[in-house]
Amino acid sequence: MNILLLGSGGREHAFAWKLVQSPLCDTLLVAPGNAGTAQVATNVPVSATDFPAIADLIRSRNIDLLIVGPEEPLVKGVVDYIHQQPDLSNLPIVGPDAEGAQLEGSKDFSKQFMARHGIPTAASQTFTADTLTDGLTYLDSHSLPVVLKADGLAAGKGVIIAETVAEAKQTLTDMLSNGRFGSAGSKVVIEQFLRGIELSVFVLSDGVNYKILPEAKDYKRIGEGDTGPNTGGMGAVSPVVFATKSFLEKVEEKVVKPTLTGLQQDGIQYRGFIFIGLMKVNGEPYVIEYNARMGDPETEVVLPRIQTDFAELMLAAGRGELDTISLQVSPQTAVTTVVVSGGYPDAYETDKIISDLERLEDVTAFHAGTKAQDGQVLTNGGRVLALTAQANSLENAVRKSQEAARRVQFEGKQYRKDIGLDLIRYSD
């Protein structure tokens, strides 16, 4: 099989790393890729949102399977574009069409979807610039803290938890009147704050059949103890100690099955990943958000635990044949620590030389924001590396991942030193 993978982050390096382990994978192209994907596959300088160039690449390289990593091309309709080409209409693609991707592309769409199909989630209302006054009045009587979400894609940073009414009103005004988050904030969902503990469940669907992949917990804030602004993710752990068998059974019955049934009832053939962000509240699952792709950095702990041939799994999803696959998962624990550029998630510098990667032992270094230049690996983004360790215990996996984060070097490096520690101490 010749496979084309779209994207350039740590998620895509993890996908590439896993795909090339399969005897089914003859050629793997990554567009545009990074310094890590270049080590295991062939990078091609094509943007993940340049749909005509992607179609040409599929034709010229005889691609048999397309896998879409990030959300932006999905929301913009890459699947629709490719399948509208007469000669590519039957190409297996892992990733939903633009309508299915609205589960992530519009918070308002996803909240209406959940309400329509009886999926447990926080109470909410949506406001626009035209209804800003109504929104401000609504906040006067809202319980605190209150969650404000930009409706559109905001690179994982469009969620604000306001502790006071004044802060909530200022945030709503900044989004709707002052252009904070740009067009992504042209609608704002105001949502009830749920008190509980958060985790993510990942589902792979072929439109009818599904597989529930290993769950994960990520760490979104920049500072230890979950302090400071949100980021794209500072680390992740899988499995999750509080995701008991009985809880995951509730997730399947109350969330996964109604979601997939709802998509079918709405006429959406959803072939791809559904990332379900959940809050466990008094033992019950509530959906915080959907994403239309795998998470990053959660992918870097989920994929290492999957023992089933990954290329075979992807092809079955793209062809609508997931019922023919048995999913095997390692019982080991995987922990990833994300090493980021100084200043992230605000302004940061790039082009810093990364050293000591060759000194890393018993970990997999998934490249996120990197590039290769003149024989060296340089930083090329906010999140630079996801350092994943596997072990028979959470404590050992944490230790190995953190040791790798200490070893690797570049100017301005920062990382959280508490990834997974809350789960070591966790008691229900």
From TrEMBL:
<dbReference type="GO" id="GO:0006189">
    <property type="term" value="P:'de novo' IMP biosynthetic process"/>
</dbReference>
<dbReference type="InterPro" id="IPR016185">
    <property type="entry name" value="PreATP-grasp_dom_sf"/>
</dbReference>
<keyword id="KW-0658">Purine biosynthesis</keyword>
<dbReference type="GO" id="GO:0005524">
    <property type="term" value="F:ATP binding"/>
</dbReference>
<dbReference type="InterPro" id="IPR020561">
    <property type="entry name" value="PRibGlycinamid_synth_ATP-grasp"/>
</dbReference>
<dbReference type="Pfam" id="PF02844">
    <property type="entry name" value="GARS_N"/>
</dbReference>
<dbReference type="GO" id="GO:0046872">
    <property type="term" value="F:metal ion binding"/>
</dbReference>
<dbReference type="GO" id="GO:0009113">
    <property type="term" value="P:purine nucleobase biosynthetic process"/>
</dbReference>
<dbReference type="InterPro" id="IPR011761">
    <property type="entry name" value="ATP-grasp"/>
</dbReference>
<keyword id="KW-0436">Ligase</keyword>
<dbReference type="Pfam" id="PF01071">
    <property type="entry name" value="GARS_A"/>
</dbReference>
<keyword id="KW-0547">Nucleotide-binding</keyword>
<feature type="domain" description="ATP-grasp">
    <location>
        <begin position="111"/>
        <end position="319"/>
    </location>
</feature>
<dbReference type="InterPro" id="IPR037123">
    <property type="entry name" value="PRibGlycinamide_synth_C_sf"/>
</dbReference>
<comment type="similarity">
    <text>Belongs to the GARS family.</text>
</comment>
<dbReference type="InterPro" id="IPR020560">
    <property type="entry name" value="PRibGlycinamide_synth_C-dom"/>
</dbReference>
<dbReference type="Pfam" id="PF02843">
    <property type="entry name" value="GARS_C"/>
</dbReference>
<dbReference type="InterPro" id="IPR000115">
    <property type="entry name" value="PRibGlycinamide_synth"/>
</dbReference>
<dbReference type="GO" id="GO:0004637">
    <property type="term" value="F:phosphoribosylamine-glycine ligase activity"/>
</dbReference>
<dbReference type="InterPro" id="IPR011054">
    <property type="entry name" value="Rudment_hybrid_motif"/>
</dbReference>
<comment type="pathway">
    <text>Purine metabolism; IMP biosynthesis via de novo pathway; N(1)-(5-phospho-D-ribosyl)glycinamide from 5-phospho-alpha-D-ribose 1-diphosphate: step 2/2.</text>
</comment>
<dbReference type="InterPro" id="IPR013815">
    <property type="entry name" value="ATP_grasp_subdomain_1"/>
</dbReference>
<dbReference type="InterPro" id="IPR020562">
    <property type="entry name" value="PRibGlycinamide_synth_N"/>
</dbReference>
<keyword id="KW-0067">ATP-binding</keyword>
<protein>
    <recommendedName>
        <fullName>Phosphoribosylamine--glycine ligase</fullName>
        <ecNumber>6.3.4.13</ecNumber>
    </recommendedName>
</protein>
